[in-house]
Write a structure and sequence with these properties.
The N and C termini lie far apart (84 Å). The protein is built from 21 helices and 8 strands. It is α/β, with parallel strands linked by helices.
């Protein structure tokens, strides 16, 4: 019997990231190095293009008898863990495959968002930093960087970067030259893959050693170049009437609204901010939330805005990067648009649009849509969207704009009234703007929820029908309920409970 144990490697990869190719390279490299190697994989079907795990065991050839190796990984018995996306790393931690007594973790900190994150009523993205901290806490050693960004920078594939990390770290009993030879033996994109491999090697050498991230003296992972850095917002002379922590945010709102419509429209935004800021009860925290949410709501996503954004050069560059297009490659972009009657009629003058919307509701056209497939990289498709985007000059006369301005005036009116009667509730009323977002069914659902909170909670408390001192907590709970439950059942329950308690106190 031998005491030699295999080196156990588990790879968690998503569809299209080359996990199978990476496992193949490692197998060939191990054979070239004279090792016993066994590889198994478990394909999965998931909401984010599918997720597959690859399990490999490596052992030196110390005798004539071939060793018996495991077909599947066991929790607590994985030496090296590779995850090509941060949430996949968290799944492996949760499953017990990453343990502080033995596992070296290599994880990419970039994110591919889940359906729940993308369909949340407000920003449903998971916070990256707590996930990174959890991964570091459970690993014996951890290297967490944005491998995807490195691959894009080198015009290589993510799996080649990971191959370089594994080769340079010494985590596996495979020399660098065997890994490099396995990549060269490949028939496709060997030059690009070698660039990625060298970038992975350089990353490990830059870190000198894989940092030990356990205990009180743990070293924090270096920030990634593509880890969603917060932009620096600078104030302008026109926003100096605001507190310093708000002025830069308001200046960004002015830039956004000038791009959305024109300078005169941005001046309306500033006028609203001046009026609210003049209240003595207005706090910097409330003004910051107001500046942010008002800028977002005033740059609402109508058909003109959607068309304009789809034509931005930055978007085309992002599509090319995601498609991994090389210089000289032709990228054909097909846009799928599906406006409903309200989106189409909302572009028309208010009176005409109102009549047509009412007619569509009487005739049951609410669920109809006008599907469009537009190739923005073709002349005909580009012209169609360019015409829609250019028609924004008529936006101030449209039905949608009139409805948005009515909503804005009502929202701001409630905020001002709250500053007078219940200052602690003002910021909660400001935050309800989170519910009204997007377009189509998402916009309708959010607007319905907001109107319910307004009619049953905000308006009665501010007009004296219900106690104003209950407003802040009530609106907060209602907003959280609306965000968590797209079907609004939780919100209905919270509102009904609030009404019962408030009426009992008022009587």
């Amino acid at each position: 019997m031998t005491d030699i144990q295999p080196t156990r490697l588990l790879i968690a990869a998503m569809g299209g990231e080359g996990g199978g190719v990476l496992a193949g390279w490692l197998t060939e490299a191990a054979l070239d190095a004279g090792l016993w190697v066994q590889r198994t994989s478990v394909p999965g079907v998931a909401q984010r293009t599918g997720a597959t795990t690859y399990y490999l065991e490596f052992m030196p050839k110390t005798g004539a008898v071939k060793p018996v190796m495991a077909l599947h990984p066991a929790p607590g018995r994985v030496d090296v863990m590779v995850a090509t996306e941060l949430l996949e790393a968290m799944r492996m931690v949760n499953a017990g495959f990453v343990t502080p007594d033995r596992t070296q973790l290599f994880a990419s900190r970039h994110r591919t968002f889940t359906v729940d994150e993308k369909s949340a009523m407000e920003d449903g993205r998971l916070d990256v930093e707590p996930m990174v901290a959890t991964c570091c806490a459970f690993a014996a050693k951890a290297l967490i960087r944005d491998f995807s960004e490195i691959a894009q920078r080198e015009t290589a594939h993510l799996n080649s970067v990971v191959m370089g990390l594994l080769a340079g770290s010494g985590a596996l009993p495979i020399p660098e030259e065997s890994c490099r030879a396995a990549i060269k033996a490949g028939k496709r994109a060997s030059d690009a893959n070698l660039r990625g491999f060298e970038a992975g090697l350089a990353l490990v050498k830059e870190a000198e050693t894989v940092p030990d991230l356990r205990g009180a003296t743990k070293a924090a992972p270096a920030p990634s170049a593509a880890s969603d850095p917060q932009p620096v917002l600078h104030a302008t002379p026109e926003t100096e009437f605001l507190p310093p922590e708000v002025a830069g945010l308001a200046a960004e709102g002015v830039r956004r609204l000038t791009d959305f419509q024109d300078r005169a429209y941005a001046e309306q935004y500033l006028a609203h901010l001046r009026r609210i800021a003049a209240h003595t009860a207005a706090t910097p925290e409330m003004l910051a939330a107001l500046a942010r949410h008002m800028a977002v709501r005033m740059s609402y996503e109508d058909t003109h805005r959607v068309a304009e954004l789809k034509l931005r050069q930055a978007r085309l560059s992002r599509v090319q990067a995601e498609a991994k297009a090389r210089p000289g490659d032709i990228v054909d972009v097909m846009e799928y648009m599906k406006p409903g009657p309200e989106e189409v009629f909302g572009m028309l003058p208010r009176k005409l649009g109102t009549r047509l919307v009412a007619m569509s509701q009487r005739r049951g056209w609410g669920k109809l849509s006008f599907p469009m497939k537009v190739r923005t990289t073709r002349f005909s498709g580009f012209i169609r969207l360019r015409f829609l985007a250019a028609a924004k000059r008529w936006r101030p006369r449209s039905l949608r704009h009139a409805e948005e301005m009515e909503w804005l005036d009502g929202w701001l009116g409630h905020v001002e009234r709250a500053l007078e009667l219940a200052p602690d509730a003002a910021i909660e009323i400001v935050e309800t703007a989170r519910l009204v977002r997007g377009y189509g069914s998402t916009f309708k659902r959010g607007l319905r929820n907001w109107r319910l909170i307004e009619a049953e909670m905000i308006a009665p408390c501010l007009n004296g029908s219900l106690p104003a001192n209950m407003l802040a907590e009530g609106v907060l709970q209602a907003r959280l309920a609306a965000v968590k439950d797209p079907e609004s059942a939780a919100l209905d329950t919270v509102v009904a409970s609030f009404r019962d308690v408030a009426l009992a106190k008022a009587s």
